[in-house]
């Protein structure tokens, strides 16, 4: 027999097995508190239900794809024993909530969070997966914060706009309660892979294979081996602060055409060894004062 119920406690702090407490329809009362009421059943008195994870979760030695339903979620439950004292939950059921429940009774979220007011009367599936109310999602947030006109002396560039164009049901979305997102979008002509942090840091691969990485904060990269980079096009860099480098070994640069360096301030070079300059053409110096020591 398969039952449905409402998750009312997902904080399995004692064993951390992913257990939840489920108030089961047709088995449990909605009464959580009362005076000398033998029919009441508080959240604390609900039995713990173990999760039945899919086979791609190993559930041993730390190998797991861990996630538990949010309080207020509808779950499916079976029992492992005839006395129905050992519940197992194995799935969640989506539903469209039209109103917020009476949180003082059972079959509701004890934290009074879910369902949220702004999700009433619509599917609980991620809006990014449905392509609905996109102006209230991170797609709009990213569009509102695009950086343009980044100057690189002889050229400039803009942060590309996200090519989001999902057609349901082709976008696989993981959305967390704090606002992290993972998208794997298989929409024809709009295929994307997108990883987004709630602080606004993201990386997104576009349908043509282009990739945009934006770090809304500091970035630290440590490479404990070689780093090889080939750029078939141009390399445009704009630095608002300082550029500091320490090269322990040699620095070798080959420029097959011209080099132009504009310095608005002073230039200082400290050379501990010999400096040699060979020019195949004319060397021209222009200065108001030249001091040779």
**Approximate strand percentage:** 15-25%
Please give the largest β-sheet. 5 strands, mixed, barrel
End-to-end Cα distance: 96 Å
Number of separate structural domains: 2
CATH superfamily of the largest domain: Nucleic acid-binding protein domain
Radius of gyration: 30 Å
- Helix proportion range: under 10%
What's the mean pLDDT score?
95
Per DSSP, the total helix count is 2
User: H/E element string?
Assistant: EEEEEHHEEEEEEE
Unreliable segments (pLDDT under 50, ≥5 consecutive)? none
CATH class of the largest domain: Mainly Beta
Strand count: 12
Identify the overall geometry. elongated
Spatial arrangement of strands, main beta sheet: 1-2-3-5-4
Helix/strand-derived category reads mainly beta
Structure commentary:
This protein has helices spanning about 125-130, 140-145, and strands at about 5-10, 20-25, 50, 75-80, 85-95, 150, 155, 170-175, 180-185, 190-195, 200-205, 210-215. The protein is mostly beta strands and about 290 residues long. It has two domains: about 1-125, Nucleic acid-binding protein domain (OB fold (Dihydrolipoamide Acetyltransferase, E2P)), CATH 2.40.50.260; about 125-220, Nuclear Transport Factor 2, Chain: A, CATH 3.10.450.190. The longest helix has 7 residues, at about 140-145. It is elongated, with a radius of gyration of 30 Å. The relative contact order is 0.09.
